[in-house]
From TrEMBL:
Gene: SV2C
GO biological process, one term: chemical synaptic transmission
UniProt key word Protease: no
Organism this protein belongs to: Scleropages formosus (Asian bonytongue)
Membrane-spanning intervals of the chain: 20-39, 135-153, 279-302, 309-328, 334-356, 368-391, 397-417
Family of this protein: Belongs to the major facilitator superfamily.
Cellular component annotations (GO), alphabetically ordered: synaptic vesicle membrane
NCBIfam families documented for this protein: synapt_SV2
Membrane topology: Multi-pass membrane protein
Protein name: Synaptic vesicle glycoprotein 2Ca
UniProt-recorded Gene Ontology molecular function terms: transmembrane transporter activity
Length: 426
């Protein structure tokens, strides 16, 4: 929660004040560190280091808390048997006492890696093999659809903004302007076959302005900034440029005759006021992340009532169905609404999947199995970002159909997992 909140809030506010950025990012992380400080250590760790009394006290605390929540505070905590994990140090000591420290360290590393490999392969042994395969499918499909669309949504919104901006372009043809002073911003315009004579461009800005087949004669340019603006097939005759950013990259097939350039501006002159869509991408991500809050609350309240599998499969299927509404997303507000709906539905699937994964594995394979599923999750996220990102501005059909199919199929597979609602952890 701290990571998601700090990332989204920091991204949304980083262009206003670095102090706000630092505070918003650091505050939830500090809260998380404080919470971890008061969280008790794992009983398994205490057993591994020989602190049996501490492990027993933590187990008793967990037992008493659970019994009070169930309305049975009088129930006494008893332990019949504790199985202590074998220490890797015991295996190291089995080496010859004459072995040097380097060989002992090498043996320790080899023993650790061998133990990890054996534990990983045990995730594919009976009786958890079938569960591992199904969990891998669900993790992969949910991550592929979720992260793929998370990247696709902001870029599509930005593409819609660009299309809407281009539809409002103003076109000027065969204009003749003489002895005029431009000291204001020209934005989203196309000038074709224009003639500018003895004109002055002073302390002004070109924003998405294109001059085509135009002639500038005896014109003076002073403190001019051009953003997304170009001069194509134009002619400059005896023009003077001072403190401008007009260079060869913006003069396309343009002829320069007896013109001079002095003190040209260097570096990027674009600001976020000029390109509001850059800020908008971060703000959309923030809104999408904020939309998971209701989903988290609903999943926390209903997890034990409707069951993990019903929430997992239902959320994934509903998320896949909600993707079809993207066909009707023709404006920024509609796409943002779809993004919030999609994230709100998907987060319930994530929460229930975390619980199901933990409860399906026994203790000696739980960490390895969960780590394997998370590795598949990251791989699917990378593939989703690459595939969905390459389809922005090309077609809406493929991303919508792909995400819907993947999520629905993953949800149906998730419904085939064993129900762990009332099971005791192994």
């Amino acid at each position: 929660v701290a990571y998601r909140w700090s990332f989204s809030m920091g991204s949304a506010y980083q262009f206003h004040s670095w102090r706000v950025f630092v505070v918003v990012c650091a505050l939830p992380c500090v809260c998380a560190v404080v919470a971890l400080t008061f969280m008790p250590e794992s009983p398994r760790f205490y057993l591994e280091v020989g602190k049996h009394d501490e492990a027993w006290m933590i187990l008793k605390q967990i037992h008493d808390t659970n019994m009070r929540a169930r309305g049975q505070p009088e129930k006494v905590f008893t332990v019949n048997r504790i199985k202590i994990p074998k220490q890797i140090d015991e295996l190291v000591e089995m080496q010859s006492e004459s072995a040097n420290p380097a060989s002992k360290a090498l043996f320790r590393v080899k023993a650790e890696l061998h133990g990890i490999w054996l534990t990983f392969m045990r995730c594919f042994n009976y009786p958890v093999k079938d569960n591992t395969v199904k969990l891998a499918v669900v993790w992969f499909t949910l991550s592929f659809g979720f992260y793929g669309l998370s990247v696709w949504f902001p870029d599509v919104i930005k593409h819609l903004q660009a299309d809407e901006y281009a539809s409002r372009v103003k076109t000027h043809n065969n204009e003749h302007i003489e002895d005029f002073t431009f000291n204001f911003t020209l934005e989203n315009q196309i000038h074709t076959n224009g003639m500018f004579i003895n004109d002055r461009f002073i302390s002004m800005k070109f924003k998405s302005v294109t001059f085509i087949d135009s002639t500038f004669r005896n014109c003076y340019f002073d403190d001019v900034t051009s953003v997304g603006s170009y001069f194509k097939n134009c002619t400059f005759i005896e023009a003077f440029f001072y403190n401008t950013d007009i260079d060869d990259t913006k003069l396309i097939n343009t002829e320069i005759i007896n013109s001079t350039f002095h003190h040209n501006k260097t570096g990027c002159q674009m600001t976020f006021d000029d390109d509001y869509s850059a800020y908008w991408v971060y703000f959309v991500n923030f809104l999408g992340t904020l939309a998971v809050l209701p989903g988290n609350i609903v999943s926390a309240l209903l997890m034990d009532k409707i069951g993990r599998l019903t929430m997992l499969g239902g959320s994934m299927v509903l998320s896949g169905i909600s993707c079809f509404f993207l066909w009707f997303g023709t404006s920024e507000s509609m796409m943002i609404g779809m993004l919030c709906l999609y994230n709100g539905l998907s987060i319930s699937a994530w929460n229930s999947l975390d619980v199901v994964t933990v409860e399906l594995y026994p203790t000696d394979r739980r960490g390895t199995g969960f780590g394997f599923c998370n590795a598949l999750c990251k791989l699917a996220a990378v593939l989703g970002n690459m595939i969905f990102g390459s389809l922005v501005g090309i077609t809406k059909a493929i991303p919508i159909l792909l995400a819907s199919t993947v999520l629905v199929c993953g949800g149906l597979v998730g419904l085939r997992l064993p129900d762990t609602r009332s099971n005791v952890l192994m």
